[in-house]
C-alpha cells in the first residue's frame, strides 16, 4: 500500500536534472525536492538512500491527506523513467484509482529493459514473482513472523523490480550480484550483504529437487558483494556484568515498565528476546522452562524437534491466569499477532544503553569461558548449533544436560549479582572498544 501521511506543505518545486540527482545522492543530506517538470514527482534523499516518489493529495478541503508511493531507487531508476511513471500514476489518480507497489512492479518491467523483455518467454517455469511467492510461503511455514517480514522487505525492494516477470532460470549470478553492488554503491553496505543472504537462501530453495521442475534452477548461487568500507562495520558490543547488573536492579524494581519482568528473565538466562517475550504458562513446569522449537531460532529448519530446557528463576512468578507469562498492555497490530509483550519492547527498554538484548549473550559467553567452560558446553545454554556434537548428545533427553546448564547459569548469576567479583577490565580487555582519544590535547 502507498505511504499514507498527514498533509504537509509540498516541497518547493525545482526542475530536476540528471546532474542534480547525482549531486544530491552523493551529498547524502536529508531533503526532499519536488520536480517542477512533472507534478507529484519527488526526490527524497536520506543519509544512505535516495528514492523517487509520487505524491498526491486525497480528501476534501480541510481534511486533506497525502499519499506517497515509492517508484524506485534513484541510483537504479533513470530520471526520465521516474517522470514517466509519475505521469502514468497521475492518470490513475485522475480516474479515481490508487496506484500501489504491485502496479509499480508491473509498470517498471518494460521500462528501458529490452533485454529482459526479450528473455521473457513462455517457458512454463516460475517467474521471479512466482518464485518469490512460493519461497515466502515456505518461510512463513517454517520460520517466525519476524523472519517472514524481513525476507519480504528485502525481496520486494525496487532494485529487484526488473526481474519481476523474468523466469528465474534465466537470472544469472552476475545479475543478482549486480543488484547487491548497486545497493552497496548507495552507501547501504549492510543492506547489500543482507540482500546477498536473502537471495542465496531463495535460490537454495529453488534448486531443491522438488522445486526444480517449476523453477528450472539446478544449482545454488555464489554471489559477490563489495567489501565494506574500513571502519564502517559496527563493532560487537560486550556490556560489562556491572552494567547489566545496574539495569537488572531497575527491572526488578519495575522501573522498565512492561519490559521489567521479561528483562529479568533475559538477563538471568541469556535467551533470545523473542523466546523470552513469548514464554507460555504451559512452558514452565516444576521449575523448568521448556522452550519449544517454535520459539527457537531455525530449529524447525534444522528439523530439530527437541525442547530446550533451562532452570526457571524462582523470583519470577507465574500469573494467576492467562496463557502468556508476559502479557501485553494492549492488543498488538498485525495479522496473527499474539497478546504477549513484543520482543522489540525489550530492545526499546534498553534504548538509553549502548548495548542491546542480544549483546547480553556475548557477555554471558565471555564470563563462562573465563570460568573455564568450553564453547560447545556454553552453546547448550545459548541454544546454538554447536551443541550436540557427540553420538550421545545427538540422542540426548531434554533433561540430560539440565544439571550442567544449571551449574553454568549459577556461575553466571554469581558474577551478575556481584557475589563473585571478576576483574572486568582484564576479562573484557580484548573485547571492549577503547575510549575515544580527545582531538586536542589540553595545554599544561
UniProtKB/TrEMBL annotation:
Protein name (record): Integrase DNA-binding domain-containing protein
Alphabetized GO MF terms: DNA binding
Keywords noted in UniProt: DNA integration, DNA recombination, DNA-binding
Residue ranges occupied by any Integrase DNA-binding domain in the UniProt entry: 31-99
UniProt xrefs under Pfam families: Arm-DNA-bind_3
Keyword Cell wall biogenesis/degradation appears in the UniProt entry: no
Gene Ontology BP term (one): DNA integration
Family to which the UniProt record says this protein belongs: Belongs to the 'phage' integrase family.
InterPro entries: DNA_brk_join_enz, Integrase-like_cat_sf, Integrase_DNA-bd_sf, Integrase_DNA_bind_dom, Integrase_recombinase_N, Phage_Integrase
Amino acid at each position: 500500500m502507498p505511504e499514507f501521511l498527514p498533509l504537509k506543505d509540498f516541497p518547493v518545486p525545482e526542475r530536476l536534472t540528471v546532474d542534480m540527482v547525482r549531486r544530491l545522492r552523493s551529498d547524502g543530506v536529508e531533503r526532499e525536492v519536488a520536480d517542477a517538470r512533472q507534478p507529484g514527482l519527488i526526490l527524497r534523499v536520506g543519509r544512505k538512500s535516495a528514492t523517487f516518489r509520487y505524491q498526491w493529495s486525497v480528501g476534501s478541503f480541510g481534511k486533506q491527506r497525502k499519499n506517497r508511493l515509492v517508484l524506485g531507487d534513484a541510483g537504479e531508476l533513470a530520471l526520465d523513467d521516474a517522470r514517466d511513471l509519475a505521469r502514468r500514476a497521475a492518470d490513475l489518480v485522475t480516474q479515481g484509482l490508487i496506484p500501489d507497489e504491485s502496479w509499480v512492479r508491473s509498470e517498471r518491467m518494460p521500462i528501458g529493459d529490452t533485454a529482459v523483455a526479450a528473455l521473457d518467454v513462455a517457458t512454463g517455469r516460475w517467474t521471479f514473482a512466482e518464485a518469490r511467492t512460493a519461497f515466502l510461503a515456505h518461510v512463513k511455514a517454517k520460520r517466525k513472523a519476524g523472519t517472514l517480514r524481513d525476507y519480504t522487505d528485502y525481496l520486494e525492494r525496487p532494485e529487484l523490480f526488473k526481474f519481476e516477470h523474468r523466469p528465474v532460470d534465466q537470472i544469472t549470478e552476475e545479475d543478482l550480484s549486480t543488484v547487491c553492488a548497486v545497493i552497496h554503491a548507495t552507501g547501504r553496505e549492510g543492506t547489500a550483504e543482507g540482500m546477498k543472504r536473502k537471495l542465496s537462501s531463495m535460490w537454495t530453495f529453488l534448486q531443491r529437487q522438488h522445486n526444480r521442475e517449476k523453477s528450472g534452477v539446478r544449482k545454488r548461487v555464489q554471489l559477490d558483494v563489495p567489501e565494506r568500507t574500513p571502519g564502517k562495520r559496527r563493532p560487537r558490543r560486550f556490556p560489562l556484568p556491572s552494567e547489566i547488573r545496574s539495569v537488572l536492579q531497575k527491572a526488578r524494581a519495575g522501573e522498565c515498565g512492561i519490559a521489567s519482568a521479561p528483562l529479568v528473565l533475559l538477563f538471568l538466562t541469556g535467551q533470545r528476546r523473542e523466546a523470552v517475550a513469548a514464554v507460555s504458562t504451559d512452558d514452565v513446569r516444576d521449575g523448568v522452562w521448556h522452550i519449544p522449537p517454535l520459539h527457537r531460532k531455525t530449529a524447525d529448519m534444522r528439523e530439530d524437534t527437541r525442547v530446550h530446557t533451562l532452570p526457571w528463576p524462582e523470583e519470577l512468578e507465574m500469573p494467576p491466569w492467562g496463557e502468556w507469562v508476559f502479557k501485553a498492555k494492549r492488543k498488538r497490530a498485525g495479522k496473527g499477532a499474539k497478546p504477549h509483550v513484543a520482543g522489540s519492547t525489550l530492545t526499546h527498554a534498553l534504548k538509553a544503553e549502548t548495548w542491546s538484548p542480544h549483546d547480553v549473550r556475548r557477555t554471558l559467553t565471555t564470563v563462562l569461558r573465563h570460568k573455564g567452560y568450553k564453547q560447545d558446553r556454553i552453546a547448550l545454554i545459548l541454544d546454538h548449533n554447536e551443541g550436540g556434537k557427540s553420538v550421545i548428545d545427538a540422542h540426548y533427553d531434554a533433561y540430560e544436560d539440565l544439571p550442567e546448564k544449571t551449574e553454568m547459569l549459577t556461575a553466571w548469576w554469581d558474577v551478575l549479582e556481584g557475589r563473585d567479583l571478576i576483574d572486568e577490565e582484564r576479562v573484557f580487555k580484548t573485547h571492549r572498544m577503547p575510549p575515544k582519544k580527545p582531538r586536542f590535547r589540553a595545554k599544561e
